[in-house]
Amino acid sequence: MKNFGFSLSKDRQIDFDKSDKRIMDFVKIEEPTFNICIACGTCTATCSAGNFTEMNLRKMITLIKRGEITGVRAELSKCMLCGKCSLACPRGVNTRNVIFKINQALEKYSL
Amino acid sequence: MKAEGKQAIWKEYQKEIADDKYFYVRSCVRQNFFPGSETTFLRILREELGKDIYEHACHTTCTGIGYHGDIVPVDTMMTVVARQFAMMTEAGYENLVPSCITSFGIYTEVMDTWHHFPETEQKVRDYLWKATGREFQIPKNLAHASDIVFKFRKEIAAKAKYQLINKETGKPLKVVEHIGCHYAKMFPDKGIGGAEYPYVLTGMIEEWGGEVIDYPERRHCCGFGFRQYLVQANRGYSMSCSHKKFESMKPYQPDLILTNCPGCPMFLDKWQYAIAELEGKTYGANGQGIPVFTYEELAGLMLGYNPWDLGLQMHQVSCEPLMDKIGIEYNSETKYHDKNGNSLGVPEKPTVLKVSL
Amino acid sequence: MNRKRVIVIGGGIAGMESAANLASMGYDVTLFEKSQELGGHLLGWEKLFPTMRMGKDVVKFLDKGVHLAKVNIVKNSNITNASKNGNLFTVSCGDGAKYESEALVLATGYDIFDAKRKEEYGYGIYDNVITSAELEEIFLSGKPLLTTKGEIPKRVGIVHCVGSRDEKVGNVYCSKVCCVTAVKQSIEIKEKIPDSNVFCFYMDLRMFGMHFETLYKQAQEKHAVNFIRGRLSEACENMDGSLLVKVEDTLAGKPLRMSVDILVLMVGMVPSEGTKKIGTMLGMNFGANGFLKSQDQHTMTSISNIPGAFFAGCCGSPRTINNVFADARSAAMMTASYLEAYDIEERITYI
Ligand code: SF4
Ligand code: SF4
Ligand code: SF4
Q1: Beta carbons within 10 angstroms of residue B145's beta carbon
Q2: What residue owns the CA closest to ligand 1's atom 2?
Q3: Rounded-to-integer distance, Cα B66 and Cα B222, Å
Q4: Is residue B173 part of a domain?
């Protein structure tokens, strides 16, 4: 293989036809309120973890729904399970259980 | 796909193209990239179509690459453009025909700017007068060289020796058309067929017997991008754009790619080598690439010109398999010979991409 | 006693309802409809948001209104001239008939945005791109929603704001009804094809009406409809006839592409040709977006710049059905008060 001093750039585009929707499919069934999130960000605004780390529950939910799951485990490990997000959510998403279910899916599929 | 839908759009984006008496301005890079193309264009216009086409020895770059690369300021660019107009005026011509898509974009942009901001035109007239003592008329008609070939596509077809048809199967060849971004993306109504479904190359392909492939990444840029390509570390990004297109067109098994810009054929041709070396991937049959042509080269091929006069030996992806498919005669012995029959030397073989040397 | 006459032009919801109200107040009302049937765009709708009641119920209600109040109906009318001379309005039709009245209500409605103008979405070019109006026709006909190859779609994409909120096509306004129509139609698709996945591509979800938000939540909760915030940059046809759409998932902060078997374009409302034609004949003022302009946005709705000429419904701006009803009744009220010599202009204390 030649070295030209450059290589192909990684495609940033989410390829929805090929992305990994196993976590999404699992959580959708196990905690249906996962579906009603409107990505308002109230959970992230109040999140104990999100105030000190990159953890962003709103974005994580969105990315899981698109099948973009690399990094989910690392991000989720920062959650303190304090439940403040559930308290704040205006839509009634059971965020704490969503987090449990994401964790379960991560284990189930060894992701 | 509904053909009528596209035809309806094509009807909306027609453009005025002068009939004769052209002032031709060459590209600053094409003579290195595809050395036979511009000569072939002049030959077709003069010898096949009997047109009056003039070029001026003092014509320079339009500065487009520098302008888009943030090196040349807009006032300088406009003054250089004004100088080209002055030479056209002095030579007694009114119809400007640039060979380069970026030049075409630059001229269109300058003329549009002057139309909306006449004070800018006045300023540039002053600059040009102070710098060179020249005056100019704005071209009456501006058409890209591919517009001209489009206009006379039927005349060329009538004189053609070959067609875009597989001689074994009798079926039309499958052609990818790739339009340079600056042809119509900035000014959609200045391009034949508009920006979303350009007709300029499609018209030639259909007239010459081929069939156009509409693949999902058809509108994506080839990745030239000026400053992206110019900096070595950024070239991967440039190459990735071509790669995206190849991946998208591969399932359609195109026989060739037709282009109308200096950069596109360069990158779509050469990156096939680089991608093969880096990724081990090729896009044509039998480990070969998909041959890439300029519209002048393709017109020349159809007319039966000697492929080595067209400069096809300069292509990275070999054109021989395509010529064999059509049944075009060529002499492999003279591929790397100059006009006087002296050997030019044979290029090195790539490690992955299969080529005919 | 000679009854005062009113001409109402346009036999959709706005025209029918204002005609019925004016006639029930005792005026001699003539209603002109260019087609052979009253009901306007409503005739093309199966179920209505947010309650999913049948569109034809509402048409029946309107029909009963004009018939009980004995509105004179002129169908297949081809109006060639409309003008005001002195205090009288005159309307001439292609067949040579002439009508006069003391007041006039314009209710010429909207046209559906021509989706071909969003060239990059490929309507009229790609096989499986349809408009929301065509989807509604399919529902109305009772036929199944199938791809052109006759297959049941596994994935359906719905594009919001086609021809609305888009400077590129010259329409900067919101058409108001299409967000909730998208939600309604996604639910209907899911009810008919439960295994399908529906994706709505939106810029903002404008669930302004009472119960619209409930419908939206129902779409998510009960039908797992997916909402992706981002506007399509283009659609292209894949080899198998499905469409590859490109969008930025703005909430994920990444470009995204996906294939859908059918792409539905939520076409917006544009001022109708009839509104342009007859409004111009009468010398009515048009606003910046091409809809009719009232004397004052807040206080003088339905009141045009021509004394005695009023307007109702979507010739003034995009409106939902219940807004059109309210507007039609308000226009009828303003017309009646004009005929009874009530001078509302006298109340204007500002300029
Ligand atoms: S439970 Fe986790 S995600 Fe929710 S607020 Fe607490 S730390 Fe944040
Ligand atoms: S607060 Fe609730 S609705 Fe809002 S983003 Fe978080 S989970 Fe979603
Ligand atoms: S109602 Fe929704 S879809 Fe329609 S124009 Fe407004 S924002 Fe766009």
Answers
A1: 30
A2: A79
A3: 19
A4: yes
The torsion angle over the Cα atoms of residues B193, B195, B196 and B199, rounded to 10 degrees, is 30
Is B1 an 8 Å CB contact of chain C? yes
Residue C124 has a pLDDT of 96
For residue C257, the CA-to-ligand 1 centroid distance in Å is: 31
Contact C234 B219 (CB under 8 A): yes
The pTM assigned to this predicted structure is: 0.94
| CA C20 remoteness from chain centre | 20
Q: How, if at all, do strands B211-213 and B292-294 pair?
A: unpaired
Residue whose C-alpha is closest to residue B37's, from B269, B295, B261: B295
Identify which of C120, C126, C234 has the shortest CB distance to residue B1.
C126
Listed residues C220, C251, C268: the one ending a domain: C268
- Which pLDDT score is estimated for B232? 85
CB–CB of B1 and C237 under 8 A? yes
Q: Which of C215, C240, C268 is the last residue of a domain?
A: C268
The residue whose C-alpha atom lies closest to atom 4 belonging to ligand 1 is A85
CATH at A59: 1.10.1060.10
* Pairwise CA distance, residues A64 & A58, whole Å: 10
Chain B to chain C, count of Cβ pairs less than 8 Å apart? 41
**What are the phi and psi torsion angles at C227 (to 5°)?**
-120, 125
Residue C1 binned pLDDT confidence (cut-offs 50, 70, 90)? low
How many beta carbons lie within 10 A of that of residue B12, not counting itself? Answer: 12
Confidence check: pLDDT of B155 > 80: yes
- C254:A65 CB<8 A: no
CB–CB contact A1 B278 (8 Å): yes
CA atoms of A71 and B91, how far apart (whole Å): 66
**Residues of chain C with a CB closer than 8 angstroms to some CB in chain A:** 217, 220-221, 224, 226-227, 229, 249, 251-259
Against chain C, the chains showing at least 3 CB pairs within 8 Å are: A, B
Please tell me whether residue C156 adopts helix, strand or coil conformation.
strand
Contact by Cβ (8 Å): A88, A43: yes
Note whether B93 and B236 are same-domain residues: no
- The answer to whether B321 touches B256, Cβ cutoff 8 Å, is no
Element containing residue C6 per DSSP (H, E) = strand C5-9
pLDDT digits (tens, 9 = 90+) for B204-263: 999 999 999 999 999 999 888 777 777 888 899 999 999 999 999 999 999 999 999 988
B317 token code pair: 């992806």
Residue type, B351: T
Q: Is A79 in the pocket of ligand 1 (CB under 6 A)?
A: yes
